[in-house]
Amino acid sequence: MIALVPMIASTVVAATPLIYAALGETVVERSGVLNLGIEGMMLIGAVAGFAAARASGSDSVGFAAAAAAGVALSLIFGFLTLNLQTNQVATGLALTLFGVGLSAFVGHNLAGMPVERLEAITIPGLSAIPLLGDLLFHYDIMVYLSVALFVGVHWFLTKSRTGLTLRAIGESPGVAHAIGKPVLATRYLAVMFGGATAGIAGAYLSLVQTPMWVEGMSAGKGWIALALVVFGTWKPARVVVGAYLFGGVTQFQLFAQGFGLPVPTEFLSMLPYAATIVVLVIICRDPKTILLNQPASLGHSFHPTT
Amino acid sequence: MDQPEFEDLKPRLVLTGITKRYPSVVANDDVSLSVRPGEIHAVLGENGAGKSTLMKIIYGVTKPDAGTILWNGQYEAITAPAQARRLGIGMVFQHFSLFETLTVWENIALALDEHIPTVQLAARITEVSEKYGLPIDPYRLVHSMSVGERQRVEIVRCLLQEPKLLIMDEPTSVLTPQAVLILFKTLRRLASEGCSILYISHKLDEIRALCDTATVLRGGRVSGSAIPRNETNESLARLMIGGELAECHLAPRVPQEVRLEVDHLSLASPDPFGTTLKDICLEVRSGEILGIAGVSGNGQKELMATLSGERLSPDGSMIKLMGQPVGTLNPAKRRAHGLTFVPEERLGRGAVPPMSLAYNALLTGARYGMVQQGLILPGVMRTFSKSVIDRFRVKCGNEQSVASSLSGGNLQKYIVGRETMLQPKMMIVAQPTWGVDVGAAQLIRQALIDLRDQRVGLLVISEELDELFSISDRIAVLAGGRLSPSVRPAETSIEQIGTWMSGKFGDGASDARPVAASRKEAVNA
């Protein structure tokens, strides 16, 4: 049992960036916008957060800079798809390519440099509880904030009036416009929120997980976050479960490699991706689940005049 | 034109000289009318007469080029729907503006200007809906509701804002006859409380039963005013179309061999909002028209897709054309057996919107001499297309006009014409006269009857009961994905068909004589 504690702890750390990125994208897609640029925004967030944290010596500044960089990139996406009504899929792909290239360019001189890792916080009393303290109360602040983010997003989407408007816009922007809802403004805010969380997710990689800047360090996690949103059927709780599952299998295969199981390491490295997809596909094996939950206007441009 | 009981009341709404021009057409030309508190005022006219434009002007969606609106004695320039709502004008649209994946209360909350907590709002919805005899459950999801129930949601949404004037745009086109009676009761009750109602329709019986006064529009102008209950259908129709209504003539015929046979067809819909077809059996013989009544959304779309071959059946012999199993064949192969069909959706299914009418003829008529050795014969294609345009009086530039440039009714005439002129053995038509004006509708109905007399088998799916009663040899009802037994129009009544439309026809629920114990036998009879 004690041996499992470090594995669970590292699972949580592996899952946290996915939770940030995927919860943000859930809100974006619920408003009817498909932003495939998460990978690009994560990398920009990673390099911006790393640079800012090094320059200022403060992790908070790093995360704030990462969020701002993510928002800046998402605004480009928002302007193109919402104002100029470009194709959302093509624009999102371009955003990822742009983010990969720009982050490599900006981070060229930062590669291999050290940065202070964001430390776990100790909660007096709670962290001292045997086993449970190590299991639940020995993480950095961003892990706790990710749980708060989940609660917040869930509440926003299901309980708040603005969340209701956002869902209505994702369902049918034309009808929402006709009854006087601000379609473009709402979608802009959603896209910016998605940009901020993707930036934070990136900074979590470069300030906590690794902690250093490596070119292309997101290694497909942005795409996994996108898959989590779809297979989690746009529901925050399922998205979070999917993220922890992915993190868990990632850690399991690392430990398995360490024990020297007689299985090819390539197979083990593949496991987290395969397992996540398989489990989530089983969750939504009925095609109606996806059809019923998918925001009806997802990926479609909206012209207020027609 | 005023009823005595309104004479002492000041008019609530007065329109004077309303004119609205579009580049190619004058939608409203010097239209004037006035409505008093508590008055149910019909606006009667054919499709394209300018009824909807006039209502949009009152509701602030469209701005008139000339004319004035007097509201409670004050001049108002209504520039937005929100302003109209503030003045106390509510509108129930023909095509609903509801969010399908949201619940009733969520839909209503979105449209209200003030914020009301969920529990209170739900209580108010229940209260208002029960007061006016429109029961709805505020926590139900809209996509699980029938069209009639959705209309209730729209009406209740309007009523929560306590309107002084309610505009209803063709409200009964989606209702069963029984639901129409309930709606009329609600409207009369509203009127008795002082609410004015503008009731837009082209259904003469309804207007005579419900409305106190009527303004008739033709070609954008007021062609007359009337007190409907003092008029006959014929006199109202003369005002509306400027001529006499032709009658369909259905000479008795003895149906010949079976052309289309559907045998215990059950099929789940791939669409979560769709209807599952349950155990459908039917038979159409040469020289007869089988009419399928029912409110849209009860499996009409699914039945059409399954019969045309857009969706395949699990077993080929579930659908037979001229005795051949075709259930697993695609639409082109079914057409090769002599089937033609007119889908309900004109743009995108019946025609390719950006292509010319001539190419749209080629789409389904390719095997009728328009293609030789893989090459298109443009001359044959154009001649065919022209003959459809001439025979069905399609209003368009010429055969090179693109399909999407035609009005809905004209395109419908073209598609029905194309399919009838392909010399089918069996033809399936969904909503043949939907959105088509009265004169053209008559033309289309007569063309279908002519085909029947040339011994073609026809299956007509329609929402218009009057239409089915006038052209069908037998009528059956599709409700909730199940098909009722079929009866001759002379041996049934609108009331009985209406009861069937709410799904009540199984296991001895109906006592109509031709209904035999087994559905199959009844169809064969």
Short note summarizing the structure:
The complex is a heterodimer of chains A (306) and B (525). Chain A has 306 residues and is mainly alpha-helical.
Observed structural traits:
heterodimer; A: mainly alpha; 13 helices; B: alpha/beta; Rossmann fold; 2 domains; 6-stranded mixed beta sheet; 17 helices; 22 strands; disordered C terminus
Report on the structure:
The complex is a heterodimer of chains A (306) and B (525). Chain A is mainly alpha-helical and 306 residues long. The termini of chain A are far apart. Chain A contains 13 helices and no strands. Chain A has one domain (2-291): ABC transporter involved in vitamin B12 uptake, BtuC (Orthogonal Bundle), CATH 1.10.3470. In chain A, helix 1 (4-30) packs antiparallel against helix 11, helix 2 packs parallel to helix 4 (88-106) and helix 3 (59-83) runs antiparallel to helix 4. Chain B is 33% helix and 22% strand. Chain B has 2 domains: 5-241, Rossmann fold (3-Layer(aba) Sandwich); 258-338 and 424-524, 3-Layer(aba) Sandwich (Rossmann fold). Chain B is α/β, with parallel strands linked by helices and 525 residues long. In chain B, the strands form 5 sheets. A 6-stranded mixed sheet of chain B has the order 6-7-8-3-9-10, sandwiched between helices. Chain B has 17 helices and 22 strands. Chain B starts with 12 loop residues before the first strand and ends with a helix. In chain B, a hairpin with a 2-residue loop joins strand 9 and strand 10 (221-226). The longest helix of chain B has 16 residues, at 177-192. The chains are: A mainly alpha (306), B alpha/beta (525). The interface between A and B is medium-sized, with 19 and 16 residues.
